[in-house]
Each structure stands twice: as structure tokens, then as C-alpha cells.
């Protein structure tokens, strides 16, 4: 479509404004971590690196970060397996209820976290507590995996739809059995989709607060929970600002990884 | 904004105890009893050997082991001295504390007045033998044997600290200086959109306290014992106030930043918030208006099902010992319970700022208590509105 | 023709079993597509249907129970009072309508903002820059949700960044309240809308647009008749996220919404003292979202998520 010069300029302008709006709050987070006051204010009365030094010695935040990473990895692993299984079933088979399956997969992420949270919470307590098992990191992983399945599923199923089954058939015609065909043909085809899905699943889990709230056992503190508990305490809030700034800076890492490991991941990934 | 960390216990209790719900309601649901008839539990007469562990439920900032700030740590020394390893769970609300206590997993809790009665009534909190807590003798007398920490002469806990819900205003924008709560009720329209209030059903008591002074015909004696008519009047007043409220607050940094920026210019506050706002340049003043104020007083209570009772008593004694009580009071921003704590504070004017030993000051404070059907003010001819109804009304007030 | 789970031990080269056994198993699976399908679906369905849907079902059954008013414990006495209260209590009705309106407003705003942005990143920007721009859109998703909401609190507060920037024009920011909540939610969920729209626009065959132009259509006409119908399913896909995430939110509105209450806040405030009421209130967003998803499925949105 040939756009007029005016339209192009207007679009460029709109995009520039759009990106500015997307990034100004993040910049604000960085500036705020240098704010000498304990509570937020604009403009900041000065700039200081004091809170960065304080945050460096905060073992609570480091512990929470580690918990978050473990929860995220666990949830991502489960989501990768389950999401891939469903994707193959839906993309390579015709069966009754196929539409329903792809509908149910979406539900955990679409329904409010608070509803998912209290539902899982009561289920865990009813089933696990008589067995003498309390809530813990394990239940957080289960809760997160439930809503992470969909992102893996979406990425893999989209890839499978684009690559017809004929490659696999060709492999089998050439004498490869089912597993061999999967390992040599199918898996390389879906690898980058798995990566994109896994990355998104980890991101969802890493940032999840509501479901975590309801599924975490005593002493299990993920980073979002730590932030939430501490950002309301004057002694801690400036440290939270620093952690927030670090998170913004760290967000570049997964994106960089995605770029490096798979050129088409970023544009091909599906939320 | 308080996000409850562990509703798990709530739902667990709700579902699991559904079958036995009636059994555990204790004296609270009792029939013609006057006031509370807690289950007959006995306090220990002597302590055994420390069990090596203690599980605590506490407000944020009450049990600090240095993991948040290496300089803020009164748990490590306790562990060293007593051999009791502390495992603590931060609760975000009184309701959560009640639910956690019901699990029987915890030995002690720092309950506020809106939870303590429920714990006593349901038999989840045991009476406390104050003779086994040597530091109890130094606790301010006006904190001992109060309606929220004792029943019929039996102590159920050790006072931890207290604070009043003050009226704070922006001295530049609110003129003339207010002297009465009317500034946030009948006169609130002058600051439309910039009034703030505490976001909790217990705030209904603040309105009741104001009506007690201004509408004598309602005959309100105790703001936590409201019959239907009195309750409706308080709720109506809050619905009027809502039109002028900019936002409700429940976490204190939110309120500090709102007062600094001018989003809020008048409303309830705690001393610690007022101090922090003033130290960061906000032009604010906070005081107890002429009608008096509501306030809170926290109590360390021991679970009736405590698995580590000796360590729990050791903790009770530790947390009200002069030095530790001073540390925790300064860290949290409240008046300490131990009179000797005032000599131990790092800021020598701390106790004066927080009115720690000012008996006349605390006489004007109506401390949080749990509204139940049996009127707490002793009336037997009417039923009072229980807390669950307060919660529902609070939703309607906010609209 | 097909494959099973990406289980590494399925690789015969790595497996301890002799290739013959693997081959026989593979052959058996190949001949029995039903068995293969059941193996594929067993674990995920157990997880989603039993664990997830089962928990939901139990929760919603509890909406019909009652609560002991003093101990707040659930009593298994059947009652439709809670569900009826949703329709008869004015405050619940108002909040429900308000919440749905907020979710719709956020969705519309996201779509309106996402379109020009995605059009730029997918078709106007130099191809070399496009992947980088997509990364730029995705980056905020990695920054913590809470951090972003608090940043908006700072922006919207009195004398904050919004006031500061609008003052030269004689305007002031919206302050805390419903508009602030809508604005913040729009910001939070915007990437979920931009991404699918970008992908759809990128995949639009250039030939189609040229053909439209060759047939005499002006850009405006091409946009309406060619681009829009092809991109609409992706907008619907994005809207699933913007709509449902907004409808369930209760934290953002607490932080920037002033005194506003949405349905999530009501659920939250009832959890501890009246779980059946919380469950009944929770039913509302669930029903609305399921209906919304079903409607969107008709547009094919779910398959282009």
C-alpha cells in the first residue's frame, strides 16, 4: 500500500509518541531509585546512590529472586511438556472435543488470577493437608504452570500448523520410526517455538503475583511478593525502588538471549 | 493496600472446618451470656525446657532477623540466648492472623484488638500466666488487663505497643487549623477530592466516635458496640464523606506520598506517617481532635495448641524486654509497651513524640476492639452489629 | 507421520533399550492413532480438567454455601442468597457494570493505540529495524507489573509527571480515580495487543495491497476493505488478553484508582470473612470472560492468539 508522505510522517510521529509513553515510566523507575527520599515524589529532591549500596546488602531480596527463578524454571519445564503434548494432539490429530481442548487451555490465563488463586488454594488445602503436606514452593510451581501452558501451546501449535506433517511422513518413508522422525525432523522444526514459548512462560511466572499470593506456603517469597510486602514499608521502599530498577535493566537479558539464540523468535513469538 | 499473603489458611479453614464449624465457635456464639464466655483454658504454671523452635505470626516489622536490613535484628540474639529458632510469618491483616492461628501451626501471634477477642472467644488463644513473663511488671499499667487483652480478669496476652489514629492536615492548604473530626465529616466538602481515610471496615468506628460527641441522641457509648440504628447513622455519615474522599489509604507510604504531593490534604494518620511526611518536607501536623480518637494496641498471644509453649513464653518476655521493645517500637513507629524501653531508644525524644507514658493522652483513645453481637458496652436489651456486617457495609460505603 | 512427546529418552541413540524394542513401540504407536492421541492428551487433560477445572467447580459450588457470622467459617447449608445478592444489591450491580466498562474501555484504547504503532513497526519502519522494534515493544513485559503500576502512581500524582508536562498547556493530569486506572491498565496490557496486530500486518502479502491500489482503491479504501478485515482476528486475539486481564485486576485499581472499587476488589475483600460471597462475586468475571472468549472464538481469534 502506497502511503502518502503525510501519512508516513503521521505514523512515524505516532510511533515516536507511543514508544516514548512505553518507556517514560521505566525511565522514571530508574530515576526514582536514585531519589534520596523514602517515599516517592516528583521531581526528586536530589540524586543519590545510597539506596543502591543499601540494597546490595539486602539478603531478603536476593533470596526472593532465587525463589522466583526456581519457581519460574519449574513452571516453565512443566508448561513445556504439557503445552507441547497438547499442541501435537491438536495440530496432528482430528478428534471429538478438539476445539474444547484449545479453549480450556486458554482459560487459566484468561480468568482472573484471584479466581484461579483461591480455587487452587482451596483445592490444595483440601487434598494436600490431610496428607500432611502444606503449601510450599511446589504449589506455586503447579499454579504457575497451569497458566503458562497456554503460551507454549500457542507457539508450538502455530509452528506445527505452518509446517505440515509431510516432512515427518517423508522421514518415515525413508525408514525412520516415529521417535527417530521426531528427534531428527520435528524437534528441530519446533525448537525455536519451544524456546519462545518457554521464555514467555518464564516471564509470566516471574512476574506473577496474584496466583502466587494464594498458593505460596509459609516462608516462600517470590520477588513480586517481596516487592509487594516491602514497598509499603518506609525502611524498605527505597530498596524496592532499586530492585525495581535492576529488574528493568535485567529485562534486557532475556530479550538479548532471544535475539542471539533464535533470530526469528522475537517476531515469531506469540503471547 | 494490603494483599494478603496467605489466604490458604483462610480457605483451608473454611473448607476443612466447614463440617465442624459450629463446634469451634466457642462462647462467642453463646446464648444469653453477658459478653464473652471463652472456653475454659488454663495458663501454664511453670515453663519446661525450651523446645528449640518457635513459630510466630506477626505484623511486618515486628520480627526482624536482619534479612531486610542487617542493622535491624533482634531475632538472632534471641536465638542465641534461648536456643529457640524463630520461624515467622508476616500477616497482612487481622483476619489472616485469625485464620493462621486456627491452623495450630503457630505458637504465638501479635494480634491487634480487632482480632484478639475472636481468638479468645474461639479458644485459639490460651490465657497467659504473666508471672512467667518477668518483663511484664514494667509494662505501662494502662495497657494491662484491657478489654482487648483480657476477659473477666484473666490476661490473654502481653502488650507490645500502641498508637492512635490521628487527624493529619496540610498546614498550607487547610485553614484555619482544624480542632475536630468534623473537618473530615461535616466540613469535608471544603477539601473535596483531597480527603483521605483508613481503608478498613474498622474505620466505621471513627465515624461512630464522632457521632458519639456530636449526636448525643444516638447514645453511643462505645464505638465498637453499635446497635443497628447507631450503625446506620455511622454508615450514612461515611457515605456522605465518601463524596469528598480522594482515596482511602492502608499502606503508609501511599499516604506519605499523597500528603507530600497534595493529593491528600486532610485525613486520619498514624504518628509514624506524620513524622515521615514531615521529615520529607511535607507541611503537615497531626493531633488528637477534641472528640478523641480511635487507636490500636497489639498483644502477643499464645496459641492454645502451641507445640513450643516454653519458647513462645521466652519470646513474649524477649519482645517486651526494655532494649528489644525500644528497638521494635522505633523501627515500626509506635509507642512501646515497656516503660523502661524509653531509656533504651536511640532517639531520646522518641517516647515523648509517641506519648509512650502519657496516661492522659491514651485516656482519650478508644482502642480497636472486635464488634460482636453481644454489645461490648454491656447492653443486653439490643443486639449489636457484628464485624461481618461492618465488612459488608464498608464495601457499600466505598460504592 | 507423527510424533510424540519431546522426551529425550525416546531417542533410540540415547536410550538404553535395544533399538528393536523402541522400533516395535514406535510401530505400535504408529498403527494405533487413538492410543497415540490418548498418550498425548492424558497428562495435560488430567492437569487442566481435573486439577484446574475441578478446583474451579468446587469453588463455585461453595458460592451456594453460607457463613457463620462470628467465626467466618463456611457452613454447608445450601442457599442462593449470595448469587441473588449479585443482582439485588445496588453496590454489586454498579461495580459489575463499572468493571465491564473498564475492561471494554481498556480494550478499545489498546486497539486504537496499537494499530498505528504496529503499522509503523510492521510496514513503515525499515525492515532492518523491525525485529529490534518488536523487542522494544516486548521489553516492558519483563519489567515487574508492580513496578510499572507504582511508576504510574508517580506520574499521575498531584504535581507529578503528568501535571508537570500538561501545565504549559494549562491542563492538569487526571489525578487518581477511574480514568487513571483505565490509563494504567491500558499501558500494562498494550504489548499484548501490539504483538498480534504487528504479526498480522507483517504477514499481510504486499501483493494484495498492490492489487487493491491497482484496482484504483485509495489508501483509505484499501485500509478499510483489505487491511482491516485481515487484521481484525488478531485484534480480537489481543483483546482476549486486554479484556480479561483488566476485568480481573484488583491491584492496579488499589494503587492508582483512588477510591474506585472493581469486581476484583470485592472478591478480594470477601475472601477471608465470607468465602461463599467471594466465590459468588468471582463467578461474575468468569461468566463474562467465558462468554467473551466464546464470542471471540467465532472470529477465529483463539487460533491466532
TrEMBL record, chain A:
Any matching Pfam family: BPD_transp_1
Keyword Signal found: no
Name of this protein: ABC transporter permease
GO biological process, one term: transmembrane transport
InterPro entries: Bact_Polyamine_Transport (IPR051789), MetI-like (IPR000515), MetI-like_sf (IPR035906)
Cell location: Cell membrane
Residue ranges of the TM segments: 9-31, 71-91, 103-124, 136-160, 239-257
Membrane topology: Multi-pass membrane protein
Main location: membrane
Alphabetical UniProt keywords: Cell membrane, Membrane, Transmembrane, Transmembrane helix, Transport
GO CC annotations, alphabetized: plasma membrane
Family: Belongs to the binding-protein-dependent transport system permease family. CysTW subfamily.
Domain annotation ABC transmembrane type-1: ranges: 65-258
TrEMBL record, chain B:
GO biological process, one term: polyamine transport
Domain of life: Bacteria
Alphabetic keyword roster: Periplasm, Signal, Transport
Entry annotated with the keyword Signal: yes
Record localization: Periplasm
One Pfam family per UniProt: SBP_bac_8
MF term (GO), any: polyamine binding
CC terms in the record's Gene Ontology section: periplasmic space
Residues of the signal peptide: 1-23
Protein name: ABC transporter substrate-binding protein
Amino acid at each position: 500500500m502506497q502511503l502518502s508522505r503525510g501519512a508516513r510522517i503521521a505514523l512515524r510521529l505516532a510511533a515516536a509518541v507511543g514508544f516514548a509513553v512505553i518507556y517514560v515510566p521505566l525511565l522514571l523507575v530508574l530515576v526514582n531509585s536514585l531519589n534520596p527520599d523514602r517515599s516517592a515524589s516528583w521531581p526528586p529532591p536530589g540524586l543519590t546512590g545510597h539506596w543502591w549500596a543499601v540494597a546490595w546488602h539486602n539478603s531478603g531480596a536476593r533470596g526472593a529472586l532465587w525463589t522466583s527463578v526456581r519457581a519460574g524454571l519449574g513452571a516453565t519445564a512443566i508448561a513445556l511438556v504439557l503445552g507441547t503434548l497438547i499442541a501435537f494432539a491438536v495440530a496432528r490429530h482430528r478428534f471429538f472435543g478438539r476445539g474444547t481442548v484449545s479453549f480450556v487451555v486458554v482459560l487459566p490465563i484468561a480468568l482472573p488470577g484471584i479466581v484461579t488463586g483461591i480455587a487452587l488454594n482451596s483445592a490444595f488445602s483440601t487434598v494436600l493437608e490431610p496428607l500432611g503436606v502444606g503449601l510450599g514452593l511446589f504449589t506455586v510451581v503447579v499454579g504457575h504452570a497451569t497458566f503458562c501452558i497456554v503460551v507454549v501451546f500457542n507457539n508450538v501449535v502455530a509452528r506445527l500448523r505452518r509446517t505440515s506433517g509431510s516432512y515427518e511422513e517423508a522421514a518415515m518413508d525413508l525408514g525412520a520410526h516415529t521417535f527417530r522422525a521426531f528427534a531428527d525432523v520435528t524437534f528441530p522444526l519446533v525448537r525455536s517455538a519451544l524456546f519462545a514459548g518457554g521464555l514467555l512462560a518464564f516471564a509470566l511466572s516471574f512476574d506473577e503475583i496474584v496466583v502466587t499470593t494464594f498458593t505460596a506456603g509459609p516462608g516462600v517469597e517470590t520477588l513480586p511478593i517481596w516487592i509487594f510486602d516491602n514497598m509499603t514499608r518506609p525502611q524498605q521502599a527505597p530498596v524496592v525502588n532499586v530492585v525495581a530498577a535492576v529488574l528493568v535493566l535485567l529485562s534486557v537479558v532475556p530479550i538479548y538471549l532471544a535475539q542471539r539464540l533464535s533470530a526469528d523468535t522475537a517476531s515469531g513469538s506469540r503471547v | 493496600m494490603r494483599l494478603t499473603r496467605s489466604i490458604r489458611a483462610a480457605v483451608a479453614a473454611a473448607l476443612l472446618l466447614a463440617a465442624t464449624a459450629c463446634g469451634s465457635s466457642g462462647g462467642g456464639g453463646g446464648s444469653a451470656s453477658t459478653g464473652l464466655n471463652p472456653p475454659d483454658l488454663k495458663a501454664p504454671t511453670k515453663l519446661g525446657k525450651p523446645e528449640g523452635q518457635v513459630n510466630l505470626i506477626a505484623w511486618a516489622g515486628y520480627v526482624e532477623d536482619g534479612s531486610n536490613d542487617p542493622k535491624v535484628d533482634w531475632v538472632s540474639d534471641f536465638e542465641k540466648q534461648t536456643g529457640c529458632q524463630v520461624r515467622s510469618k508476616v500477616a497482612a491483616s487481622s483476619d489472616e492472623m485469625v485464620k493462621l492461628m486456627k491452623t495450630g501451626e503457630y505458637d504465638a501471634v501479635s494480634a491487634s484488638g480487632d482480632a484478639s477477642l475472636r481468638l479468645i472467644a474461639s479458644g485459639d488463644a490460651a490465657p497467659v500466666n504473666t508471672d512467667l513473663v518477668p518483663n511484664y511488671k514494667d509494662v505501662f499499667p494502662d495497657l494491662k488487663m484491657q478489654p482487648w487483652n483480657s476477659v473477666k480478669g484473666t490476661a490473654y496476652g502481653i502488650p507490645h505497643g500502641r498508637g492512635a489514629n490521628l487527624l493529619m492536615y496540610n498546614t498550607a492548604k487547610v485553614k484555619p487549623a482544624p480542632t475536630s473530626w468534623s473537618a473530615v465529616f461535616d466540613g469535608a466538602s471544603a477539601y473535596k477530592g483531597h480527603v483521605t481515610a483508613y481503608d478498613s471496615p474498622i474505620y466505621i468506628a471513627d465515624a461512630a466516635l464522632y457521632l458519639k460527641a456530636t449526636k448525643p441522641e444516638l447514645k453511643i457509648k462505645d464505638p465498637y458496640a453499635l446497635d443497628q440504628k447507631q450503625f446506620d447513622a455511622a454508615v450514612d455519615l461515611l457515605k456522605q464523606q465518601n463524596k469528598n474522599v480522594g482515596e482511602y489509604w492502608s499502606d503508609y507510604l501511599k499516604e506519605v506520598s499523597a500528603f507530600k504531593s497534595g493529593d491528600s490534604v486532610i485525613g486520619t494518620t498514624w504518628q509514624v506517617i506524620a513524622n515521615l511526611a514531615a521529615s520529607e518536607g511535607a507541611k503537615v501536623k497531626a493531633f488528637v481532635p477534641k472528640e478523641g480518637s480511635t487507636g490500636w494496641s497489639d498483644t502477643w498471644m499464645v496459641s492454645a495448641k502451641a507445640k513450643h509453649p516454653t519458647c513462645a513464653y521466652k519470646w513474649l518476655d524477649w519482645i517486651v524486654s526494655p532494649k528489644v521493645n525500644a528497638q521494635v517500637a522505633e523501627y515500626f513507629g509506635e509507642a512501646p509497651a515497656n516503660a523502661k524501653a524509653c531509656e533504651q531508644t536511640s532517639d531520646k525524644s522518641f517516647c515523648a513524640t509517641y506519648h509512650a507514658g502519657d496516661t492522659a493522652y491514651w485516656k482519650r483513645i478508644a482502642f480497636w476492639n472486635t464488634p460482636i453481637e453481644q454489645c461490648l458496652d454491656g447492653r443486653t436489651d439490643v443486639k449489636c452489629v457484628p464485624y461481618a456486617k461492618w465488612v459488608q457495609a464498608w464495601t457499600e460505603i466505598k460504592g | 507421520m507423527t510424533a510424540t512427546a519431546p522426551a529425550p529418552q525416546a531417542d533410540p541413540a540415547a536410550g538404553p533399550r535395544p533399538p528393536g524394542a523402541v522400533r516395535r513401540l514406535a510401530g505400535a504407536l504408529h498403527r494405533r492413532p487413538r492410543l497415540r492421541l490418548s498418550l498425548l492428551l492424558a497428562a495435560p487433560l488430567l492437569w487442566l480438567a481435573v486439577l484446574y477445572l475441578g478446583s474451579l467447580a468446587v469453588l463455585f459450588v461453595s458460592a451456594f454455601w453460607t457463613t457463620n457470622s462470628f467465626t467466618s467459617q463456611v457452613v454447608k447449608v445450601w442457599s442462593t442468597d449470595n448469587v441473588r445478592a449479585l443482582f439485588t444489591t445496588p453496590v454489586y450491580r454498579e461495580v459489575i457494570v463499572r468493571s465491564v466498562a473498564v475492561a471494554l474501555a481498556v480494550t478499545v484504547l489498546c486497539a486504537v493505540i496499537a494499530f498505528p504503532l504496529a503499522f509503523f513497526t510492521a510496514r513503515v519502519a525499515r525492515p532492518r529495524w523491525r525485529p529490534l522494534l518488536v523487542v522494544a515493544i516486548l521489553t516492558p513485559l519483563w519489567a515487574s507489573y508492580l513496578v510499572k503500576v507504582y511508576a504510574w502512581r508517580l506520574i499521575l500524582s498531584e504535581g507529578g509527571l503528568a501535571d508537570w508536562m500538561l501545565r504549559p498547556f494549562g491542563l492538569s493530569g487526571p489525578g487518581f480515580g477511574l480514568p487513571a486506572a483505565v490509563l494504567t491498565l491500558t499501558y500494562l496490557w498494550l504489548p499484548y495487543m501490539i504483538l498480534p496486530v504487528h504479526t498480522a500486518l507483517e504477514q499481510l502479502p504486499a501483493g494484495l495491497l498492490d492489487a487493491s491500489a491497482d484496482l484504483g482503491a485509495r489508501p483509505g479504501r484499501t485500509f478499510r476493505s483489505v487491511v482491516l478485515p485481515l487484521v481484525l482476528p488478531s485484534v480480537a486475539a489481543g483483546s482476549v488478553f486486554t479484556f480479561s486481564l483488566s476485568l480481573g485486576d484488583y491491584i492496579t485499581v488499589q494503587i492508582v484508582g483512588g477510591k474506585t472499587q472493581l469486581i476484583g476488589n470485592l472478591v478480594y475483600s470477601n475472601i477471608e470473612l465470607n468465602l461463599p460471597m467471594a466465590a459468588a462475586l468471582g463467578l461474575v468475571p468468569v461468566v463474562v470472560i467465558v462468554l467473551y472468549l466464546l464470542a471471540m472464538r467465532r472470529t477465529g481469534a483463539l487460533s491466532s492468539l
